[in-house]
Amino acid sequence: MTLPPRKKLGPRRDAKITLKTIAEHVKLTPGTVSAALNNSPAARSIPAHTKNRIIEAAQALNYRPNFFARTMRLKRSYLIGVIAEEIGDAYGALLISGIEEYLRKNNYFFLTVVHRHDPKFLQTYAQMLLTRGVEGFITTNASLTEKLALPTVAIAGHESVDGVTNIVLDHKRAARLALEHLRDLGHKEIAFIRGQTFSSDSTVRWNAICEMAQQLSIRIRPELTIQLEGIDSSPAIGYPFAKQLLARKHPFTALFAYNDISAIGSIWAFREAGLRVPEDISIVGFDDIAGAGYADPGLTTVRQPLMKMGQIAAQTVVDLIEGRGEYVPEIALEPEFVIRQSTGPAPLGQPWNIAAGA
Length: 358
Fold this sequence. Notes:
Layout: H1 19-26, H2 30-38, H3 48-60, H4 67-74, E1 79-84, H5 90-105, E2 109-114, H6 119-131, E3 136-140, E4 152-155, E5 164-169, H7 171-184, E6 190-194, H8 202-215, E7 225-227, H9 239-247, E8 254-256, H10 260-272, E9 282-287, E10 300-303, H11 306-321, E11 330-333, E12 336-338
Parallel strand pairs: 1-2, 1-3, 3-4, 4-5, 5-11, 6-7, 6-8, 8-9, 9-10
Antiparallel strand pairs: 10-12
């Protein structure tokens, strides 16, 4: 009996797929395949349809490049150093998610260190990351005072440093959106929680609030203004400062908090004092962290596009490294205003019973 001819099979699933395997599959040299997959200068002479054929073959064969071999061959690490304020808080987590998403899709890796607003850590960590071969830096909520040795993008850096691209929010627009909302609801006595002195957004945001309040004829009272202290990244940060505002016994009908976590902590303090949100006091936050919409009540807030800021920072530093983009000192993004259940019309008559806050 004559057996049918055996079908020619592709590489076994457990076989190691190399550049030579792909080259044999597409009937090209390994050098051509390597140039196309690594997008090296030699790839410029390869026709687009040939590049596409090589890439499709690599995907079909489930090719996984050897990172260390690629690094040595191209003399590149494909590493970005991320110097973050914190990574476990809601603000930092969204920024890191945006950074990670872009870098992963573009075959870059990143190393993360946490500075916690200690200027000594900024320099120490920058040097440490340099010794590990990073090709660029991204910093978050850190005011750099001098240029680092590699392409650098600062999220919420605000300081003008030659060679550093700042990703910033339009804080004047943000302040106007929040204050106009409260004014249109009839609020005149508005309390404010300012950011910690070490936060790079604090001064810029407060100056924007003061400027917009003046334009909108909204009075900012010193007795209704308090500043956050401490490094707690949970809503507990806002609780004691909201209680201090109540203890001053100067009634107010609205609170504009520095960020969402302090706004949510303030809701706890007001409820504990027997006050209702928003019937007695309306509250506006800032950031629109993941939990803002699930607070009780849902938090009205200024939305920073945090994930987008992380993505843009990653794209900008990669473009600078690969020579695709030109240096720009600043990239400004527009805020959005999200109205939820924590704001409502100002109460008529006496704002609230002072005794309730005693």
